[in-house]
């Protein structure tokens, strides 16, 4: 189906918006009136620019408060409409949106509304324009889609149809089943937006919190299914008012937007991108650093062995159990020195995974870094992390591991069995995009977003996982974009015995994050522990949490660059990430940073 | 009355919070449990730190979901309470807050709640502790203050009283009149918070949007009046969960917080800071610049005359009608070069104005810059702008004008009569503070906040004014703190004939901000103009707006440094600032900046 986006959904000048929409592959745009008024381009120039960019102008929305008003007022509205229809001719737009009136002048009179809309449509017809009438969720007298359709039906004018908007319908809890009663040819336009399920004033909700389909809590796919049953064949158009998108770079937002429509079309069965090849585990995590020594000391103390070295690049493979960490000193040093740059995802079908990622607009990275390397399919996540789709020592598949020459066997007495999860701080402008990306491109499940109190502001955190927990990525974001890099990334290592793993680490000279004594006094108040257990946690700095499924014990290393490690023991099916303990951990990290000036 | 603040209201580590609260003059603190758990200080050390800082520990809040639960669960709660009461002994806190339960285990049984709270109070009494029971607005079975009080009364234990929280009471729309029925000695604690009037889920509203009294829409003073009638003599304590304050520097937030309590006490008549000496007009606006030439050219073209020069400093006075602009090339150059650094406010009593400002914690600036200068009372606004309380050529008062030596008479043929308004971009973290500051310190009225769409994000704008419009300041802020300095400040100059003023400016070589033709096509659609009128606006770049009271015509100069000028003609009592036109103006400024690379 054709896809379109309202210019209000993107940041910048009109030309920046049009360029971004075109590059992301949209077929058309809705031109928001303020964008046109503020543009130095004439309507003819905008039309030409759109044509050059391969975009049609699918909708223009220049008028509010048209219908069901006293005749004198309506005469003024028709005068205004005539001006706007002339403008639309110059702009090359053939459909005008008319939202149900919010004017205090409007009266509750469907017959009058229908009669005036028919007159508006008659005028529009003279200009070759169709009028799409839409119920605003907060319309004064008309606020539901079936009511708007009733008025359109009553008016009975060929140039008058209805516009459906998923936000206005779903925010009011209307049942979209009734859409099937509307003839498809009378649905002149379809606007799509999702939103988080917030209990708040619908106008504020609409103006500030809309998001792209799949990023909120609405069943946009269910609504689209109803619309498609009518035979509607117009564009799927995104109209998203969002305070963050208004500030974000238009290019990535447009890609995020179109990805959301691709996924939506897949969900309702009108598009079939390559199926997800859901990763089964983390094959490796790759750290880049200008100085490998601190990391080597840390990994050694954690029980990792440097088992192999890349044949052609300065990359070491450290291994313990199934946990593999690459330490790369060759990549250009990033602004923060040591950081988590790439993740290897063990994939049932790496090529298929890459094909899906590409189809869903993930930036594809070169397959081969050097001629002699195994070809590795890789894409960039929204935060810039490189995601490699890997097969590790599996027959008939390119084996990244073969690029490494073994140097030493890993220790048999491993305390760490695998990577439990990876925690990645997201750029503030791309948090919603990140969750949708991981869900749609990788086929992971997104959990609920939780608030975490850092001493210097609230963080939000949202995990994306495979159902069995084989891959777990915790995405987090600060409350404002002041400094996207202030919070560290971390690698959590799974262990069956966190006490033993922590002791091993400290005995090998490692230093765990010190946890305040007050935390343990509180644990003593909240839980009963076996004799000596709490004392051990207190001594080592092990944190404790419990959920309905099981228990979680975990501790943290000091930070190197932007990266630290966690030792994590899950028992009895615990599903969380110790969010309850995060404020204490974050405060301890801030305190340490102040002490060390780091 | 004693004032207190919950540590959760401030950003940073516990010690940073305590220091900020003490410096702002608070008498006590509520220690929020997470702040204690995350602190490396022992409870005894925290107690000592508070004592050193002159702070009492007025409340501790370590327990949730205590009452009206099955006996087995309550036994666990008592066990937890015993731990916490021991801790409170070490901490030196004698009042514990217990919020009404939100636990799914809680039953709707007031008798059971009363019985269990009495048992909790009995235990507390053994530790010399009082229990203050508070209704959370989203409590499972107890959500109103009168219900909580009924349970406390039923329990009838001397160590059990109630805690009132203005947010929980006013967010539910409860009538605070019933508070008068509670004996003052049974109100163990009073928590105060305001909030903007948002129609949203009360839990989210409470957790993210509370603000200090006077910054929101609640009648906190009305509630406090009721509380004081009971004879309550405990502290006034601020408990404010706010996403912005969590990120802002603790020091200024604490000052803002205490200012809010000073104003609140004045409102209810229990404190009497010096009365406001409301300014009557803008005596001058002072620009600092490293290079006076571009400003001199701009001011000259606008019709200003350089009428005087400061006797001892490199400051020129430019005048036209009653509009006075100081151009200061002596002050250390700021990061953005040319900017609006100070405002002179014509005050009926400059000393009294300064005394009030100081009493309300405004940072007082040195009265005299040089020995020979007239002593000028001045304070710093939250955005750093210096506010001078002035008398201009008035008998018996220090006359700032006398520091200037006349050089030339202003032109008699003035198009500009006075400064219409000043528009100041506020630091993101201090927008709520700024409105309260201007309202309370200066005695201005704060208008409603409006959203304005900039191409790169939403701005909020809020004007503070005198009732007659003699002083008008438009405060604005971006949607995120990414760059507080990206938006310019401006000085709007009042004229009776904006067309003549604009012509004069352009004929003198000035260049107005170009406004797109599309804007005028829209004006033609929306309004009917006299013959030729619209063409004149189009030619010059004059914008037009209309409200219920009158009309507004205005245009803008190009920007110098961070400053530009507006020529503004108000007719018929128009009250706004052309917010309707702001998106077009902002887009034009961005476009020009891109063109000029400025």
Quick structural summary:
The structure is a homodimer of 598-residue chains. With 598 residues, chain A is an alpha/beta fold.
List the SSEs and their pairings.
Two copies of one chain form a homodimer.
Chain A: E1 3-6, H1 14-23, E2 28-32, H2 33-37, H3 43-52, E3 56-63, H4 71-91, E4 95-99, H5 110-126, E5 130-134, H6 145-155, E6 160-165, H7 166-170, E7 187-192, H8 202-209, H9 220-229, E8 236-238, H10 250-268, E9 281-288, H11 292-301, E10 305-310, E11 315-320, E12 323-328, E13 339-346, H12 350-359, E14 364-365, E15 377-380, E16 386-390, E17 404-406, E18 416-425, H13 431-442, E19 445-454, E20 457-465, E21 472-478, E22 489-495, H14 498-507, H15 517-526, H16 533-540, E23 543-546, E24 551-556, E25 563-571, H17 582-596
Parallel strand pairs in A: 1-2, 1-8, 2-3, 3-4, 4-5, 5-6, 6-7, 7-8, 9-12, 13-16, 18-21, 22-25
Antiparallel strand pairs in A: 9-13, 10-11, 10-17, 11-12, 14-15, 15-16, 18-22, 19-20, 20-21, 23-24, 24-25
Helix pairs in contact in A: 1-10, 3-4, 4-5, 5-6, 9-10, 10-13
Question: What does this 3D model show about the protein?
Answer:
Two copies of one chain form a homodimer. By secondary structure, the first copy, chain A, is of the alpha/beta class. Chain A has two domains: about 5-270, TIM Barrel (Alpha-Beta Barrel); about 280-595, Roll (2,3-Dihydroxybiphenyl 1,2-Dioxygenase, domain 1), CATH 3.10.180.10. Chain A is about 30% helix and about 25% strand. The first copy, chain A, has 17 helices and 25 strands. In chain A, the strands form three sheets. In chain A, strands 14-15-16-13-9-12-11-10-17 form a nine-stranded mixed β-sheet, covered by helices on one side. In chain A, strands 1-2-3-4-5-6-7-8 form an eight-stranded parallel β-barrel, surrounded by six helices. In chain A, helix 1 (about 15-25) packs across helix 10 (about 250-270), helix 4 packs parallel to helix 5 (about 110-125) and helix 10 (about 250-270) packs parallel to helix 13. The longest helix of chain A is centred in the first third of the chain and has 21 residues, at about 70-90. The two termini of chain A are about 55 Å apart. Chains A and B meet through helix 2, helix 4, helix 8, helix 15 and helix 17 of A and helix 2, helix 4, helix 8, helix 15 and helix 17 of B.
């Amino acid at each position: 189906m054709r896809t379109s986006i309202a210019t209000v959904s993107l940041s910048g000048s009109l030309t920046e918006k049009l360029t971004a929409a075109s590059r992301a592959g949209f077929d058309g745009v809705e031109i928001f009136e303020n964008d046109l008024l503020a543009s130095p381009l004439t309507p003819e120039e905008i039309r030409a620019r759109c044509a050059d960019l391969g975009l049609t102008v699918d909708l223009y929305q220049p008028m509010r408060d048209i219908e069901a008003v006293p005749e004198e007022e309506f005469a003024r509205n028709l005068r205004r409409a005539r001006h706007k229809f002339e403008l639309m001719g110059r702009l090359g737009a053939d459909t005008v949106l008319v939202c149900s009136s919010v004017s205090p002048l409007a009266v509750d009179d469907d017959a009058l509304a229908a009669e005036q809309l028919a007159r508006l449509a008659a005028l529009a017809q003279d200009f070759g324009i169709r009028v799409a009438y839409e119920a605003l969720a907060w319309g004064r007298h008309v606020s539901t889609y079936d009511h708007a359709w009733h008025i359109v039906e009553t008016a009975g004018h060929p140039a008058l149809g209805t516009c459906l908007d998923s936000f206005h319908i779903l925010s009011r809890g209307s049942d979209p089943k009734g859409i099937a009663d509307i003839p498809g040819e009378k649905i002149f336009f379809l606007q799509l937006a999702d939103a988080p399920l917030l209990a708040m004033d619908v106008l504020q909700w609409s103006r500030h919190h809309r998001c792209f389909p799949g990023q909120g809590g609405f069943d946009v796919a269910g609504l689209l299914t109803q619309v498609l049953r009518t035979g509607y064949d117009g564009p799927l158009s995104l109209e998203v008012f969002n305070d963050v998108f208004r500030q974000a770079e238009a290019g990535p937002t447009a890609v995020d937007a179109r990805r959301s429509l691709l996924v939506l079309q897949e969900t309702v069965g009108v598009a079939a991108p390559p199926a997800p090849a859901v990763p089964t585990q983390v094959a490796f995590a790759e750290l880049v650093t200008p100085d490998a020594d601190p990391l080597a000391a840390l990994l050694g103390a954690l029980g990792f062995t440097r088992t192999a070295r890349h044949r052609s690049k300065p990359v070491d493979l450290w291994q313990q159990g199934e946990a593999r960490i690459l330490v790369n000193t060759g990549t250009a040093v990033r602004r923060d020195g040591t950081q988590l740059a790439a993740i290897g995802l063990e994939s049932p079908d790496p090529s298929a995974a890459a094909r899906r990622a590409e189809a869903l607009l993930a930036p594809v990275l070169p397959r081969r870094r050097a001629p002699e390397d195994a070809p590795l399919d890789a894409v960039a996540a929204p935060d810039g992390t490189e995601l490699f789709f890997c097969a590790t020592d599996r027959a008939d598949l390119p084996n990244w591991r073969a690029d490494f020459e073994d140097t030493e066997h890993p220790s048999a007495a491993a305390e760490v069995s695998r990577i439990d999860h990876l925690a990645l701080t997201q750029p503030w402008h791309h948090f919603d995009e990140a969750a949708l990306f991981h869900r749609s491109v990788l086929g992971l499940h997104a959990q609920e977003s939780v608030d975490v109190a850092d001493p210097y502001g609230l963080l939000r955190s949202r995990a994306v996982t495979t159902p069995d927990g084989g891959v777990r990525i915790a995405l987090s974001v600060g409350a404002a974009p002041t400094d996207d890099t202030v919070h560290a990334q971390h690698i959590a290592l799974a262990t069956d015995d966190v006490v033993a793993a922590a002791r091993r680490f400290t005995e090998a000279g490692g230093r765990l994050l010190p946890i305040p004594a007050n935390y343990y006094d509180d644990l003593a108040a909240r839980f009963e522990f076996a004799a000596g257990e709490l004392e051990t946690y207190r001594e080592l700095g092990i944190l404790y949490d419990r959920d309905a499924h099981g228990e979680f014990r975990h501790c943290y290393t000091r930070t190197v660059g932007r990266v630290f490690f966690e030792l994590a023991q899950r028992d009895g099916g615990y599903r969380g990430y110790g969010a309850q303990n995060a404020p204490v951990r974050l405060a301890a990290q801030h305190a340490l940073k102040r002490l060390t000036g780091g």
